[in-house]
Amino acid sequence: MDGGFLYGGVGKFNEPLLTCLAISWAINYLLLTASNKSMQYVKIFGSIAPFALLAFVSSAIMTDNDAWGGFNLLFDTSTIDFLDLQSWRRAAEQVLYSLDVGTGHLIIYGANRSFHNNILGGVLLVTLLDTICAVTATIVVFGTANIVACKYHIQFSMVFKSGEPAR
């Protein structure tokens, strides 16, 4: 067995991605330790701006008629292999990074909250917003992929295999 594989073939470490993650955590640490008011607004904007961008992109995607075929494929359960280990690994990755543990925005959000608030309410709010964000992002990805498939007259699955349409 190759020593680069983890846990019986689940995957290898991605060193550039690990380096980006370490740099992201270092930047978040520096933002957390900054004490002036202007940095607090930068932290809050950096945590909220992606949600506004996602809402804008999803509303633009929903207006395109070609995107709706991708939405139908997204919610079709016949394409999912529930016994495949790789499917569960990808789901676990999504759970780990969907709460933004990887880039630290959840930590920044928690650092700006006062401790006398009900923590259960905060956890439920973050989890609800995370679920809405994950579903919306997935809808945007599948809608965009179907738009590309219709534009270049290729199969939907080929968009994800090659990363770009064949010329």
From TrEMBL:
Bilayer disposition of the protein: Multi-pass membrane protein
Gene Ontology molecular-function annotations: amino acid:sodium symporter activity; metal ion binding
Gene Ontology biological-process entries: amino acid import across plasma membrane
Lineage summary: Eukaryota, Metazoa, Ecdysozoa, Arthropoda, Hexapoda
The protein's name in its UniProt record: Uncharacterized protein
InterPro entries: Na/ntran_symport, SNS_sf
Residue ranges the record marks as coiled coil: none
Transport found in the keyword field: yes
Binding site for Na(+): S98
Transmembrane region(s): 16-32, 44-62, 119-148
An example Gene Ontology CC term for this record: plasma membrane
